[in-house]
Amino acid sequence: MTVSLRYAARSDVGLVRSSNQDSAYAGPNLLVVADGMGGHAGGDIASRIAIENLRHLDTDTHTPAAALDDLEAAVEEARLGLVRASTAAPDLAGMGTTVTALLRTGSTLVMAHMGDSRAYLLRDGALTQVTVDHTFVQHLVDTGRITADEAETHPQRNVVMRVLSDFDLDLHPDMSIREAKPGDRWLLCSDGLSGFVHLDLLGEILTDAKDVGEAADLLLLAAMHGGSTDNITVVVADVVDDDAAAADESAEAVDAKAVDARAVDPGLPAAAATGVGGVQVVGAATGTSPIPGSPAPSADVPATPSDDAAASEGTPASLASAPGDGDGDTSDGDDEEEADDADARPAPRRHPVIATLVTLLALAVVGVGGWGAYRWTQQQYFVGVSEDQVAIFRGIPASAGPLTLSTPVEYTGTPVSDLPAFFASRLDGTIRASSLQDARDRAARLIAQAEQEQEPTPEPTQPPAETPVEPPAEQPPTDVPADTPVDQPVEPVG
């Protein structure tokens, strides 16, 4: 039996950032996610260097014995590429990137991992996190100082302890070998997804999505709905039995392009809609500006596809990062924008997913995969406001043209105007629930907490004035001889 991969890659700048520093690569034999860091000056360059130094591995010539060494050597070459870049451009000093990569060789997968980008495996209906974060809070969890639940909200959860960087440090990736089992579904992602979407929801989406393209689109949407403040990058891949897949190959392309980008935007060039050689490159890796310290590409090496084309390989145009986001441009104007990243809300052009989800879902009835997205939204619940009451909604707090994606299904009878301002402000669609009963419980807890907050503190009561009590008349002790003094202390014996 021979196996192959069906895959889809997606990347978006996210809700807050003004540039995309994530990169991803998906090909027949190689899957990579790289989350760059080091500010606008270097994060996008670092993740691009990682992809450029690993993508040559995407061949079927590796033997299982050599694949492990080949992948580790490529990661080391990427590190040297970072060193060369920061030497040629000192303003890039200190940049780094996570790397999570899977290299297929036959029915074996070789994995390299550094940083906090993650790999998950859905096998037989159970989702497992395969990688271990190289972060400070994970160290605290491993040493028993905090719990896994506490790690999710720890203020230093984003402090990464091991990444691919230009520092002269002897840091190596975690290397492992795994079986490529038909029926497995793999997810590689940056923390813009894993840091904002709960494991249960990740598992639900990966289980229910009919193909990798739909799964990747829904994961991106879930991260947006979860309020992700980081770049979001996902690669989803299915391990398929080639013999079984041959029967339906005409109905579903092997490169797993779930949506023809031209169906979303007919103005796209053909190359952008059909992809280039079945390879999908998204995020900062689509940049075309020269990388400092890198030799000029030789004539026999195909150039990196243009931003628009590469970002759209196998990806709806609306779900690719906006042109110019993460293309390596370090102009002064963008530096000023980066300084305000913490508070900035992006203009619509920097936030393409939510803006054009309308188009994807409106196209559901013409069979571009949007129906699965709509069906998923109708399995979600949240607590919000309807008719000035705390209400439970089915769906998500968004709309797609004439289609409303949420409907109130129950009213609690509690007027929002009766709640303290703090509790009323929480009813903005962010109180999500995993089921109708969970939504009821969350609504009940919020109302109970609000009522408890409103209860007036009782005034301290004054004790009644003391009424003088006359001592009882002295009575002679019973059965005590008359000559025994009852008011004298008894002296101790001895």
In CATH's first tier, which class of the largest domain applies?
Alpha Beta
Give the number of helices: 16
The number of distinct β-strands equals 17
Round the mean pLDDT to the nearest integer and report it: 74
Principal-axis shape equals globular
Largest sheet: 8 strands, antiparallel
Beta-strand percentage range: 15-25%
Q: What is the number of independent domains?
A: 2
* CATH fold description of the largest domain: Phosphatase 2c, domain 1
Task: Indicate the CATH architecture of the largest domain.
Answer: 4-Layer Sandwich
> What is the helix content?
25-40%
Distance between the termini: 100 Å
Q: Find the CATH superfamily of the largest domain.
A: PPM-type phosphatase domain
Radius of gyration over all CA atoms, rounded? 31 Å
Question: Oligomeric status of the shown chains?
Answer: single chain
Low-pLDDT parts are 254-277, 298-369, 480-487
Protein name: Serine/threonine-protein phosphatase
InterPro entries: PP2C, PPM-type-like_dom_sf, PPM-type_phosphatase-like_dom
Transmembrane segments: 353-374
Organism: Xylanimonas protaetiae
